[in-house]
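anyone else get weird line breaks when pasting these?? whatever heres mine. first is seq + tokens for prot A
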Amino acid sequence: MEDQQNLEQIVNEINAYNQQAELIQQQIELIRASIVEVDTLTNTLDDLKGKDSVEAFVPVGAGSFIKGDLKNTDEIIISIGAGYAIKKDVEGAKEIVAGQKEDLEDSLDKMLGNLQQVTDIVGALTNQANQIAAAAQGQMTGF
């Protein structure tokens, strides 16, 4: 009877850790998507460098775009977080973006570490549950 209660408790813990692992995995995917966006911005800034004018599609809302010309490609308004943005030249913007990417990569490393810890805990709990189940099975068969 005590083994059954221990087994149920371990199964509940495993389920809770599996849910936590899913949330961490979702955060990892969001961070990876942000890194891709930052890389895309860096590549775009590199492509704009030295060009006086560039033809582009400008978003106007609801997934719609208008073809337009970007006239002043040597300045960019860049988000610095918390709803704030500043005007920078291309090199200054690239420095900010590089810092943002570094922060994202640090966050990604931490999330991957957290996921590994949770996975290790689930593995240990699963082994523990298997041992309890095997012992209970052995008691039922008389071995």
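and prot B, same format (seq, then tokens)
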Amino acid sequence: MRVIFWAGFAAFAIDQISKYVVIHMMELARIRSIDVLPPLVNFRYGENRGINFGLFGGGSEASRWILIVLALVICTAVLWWARQNAQTQIARISAGLLIGGALANVVDRLIYGYVLDFLNMSCCGINNPFVFNIADIFIFAGALGLIFFTDSGEDAAKSGGRNKPRSKPAKKGG
């Protein structure tokens, strides 16, 4: 549990500090655009009232609270699942990153009513209109880590994991 906590705490803190520095200290909210390493990395101010890439972003107060509750339910489910299953160290870190990133976006929704986004990346003649934040990177990386680095039931049984798969009773007369 310590690994999940510290990975989550780090993801949460890095995201919130980056938002504070870029949005408030660098005044991105006022100037709206800063070219960092054009076209690869740019800061563009964004208010995301929906999910990734602004999907389902109707902006209503009800949708805001639905997204907050949904994120908290997902965080709870990931934490419960990670605690119940024998996991590799990188899978525990991945769970923490996903949870920390999601909670950082929940805090934005609670404080501002929307998620603050500021990263924009374009390349190779393609102008990407979408913005995202560090928490989104942690959520995505955490989800991929859970997909690729989670022990399967057989691996967990071999390594002495807590939730060993139950063996099926042998069929009689067959």
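btw re prot B: Residues 39 and 125 are 9 Å apart (CA to CA). The helical segments are 2-25, 28-31, 61-84, 89-112, 134-149, 153-158.
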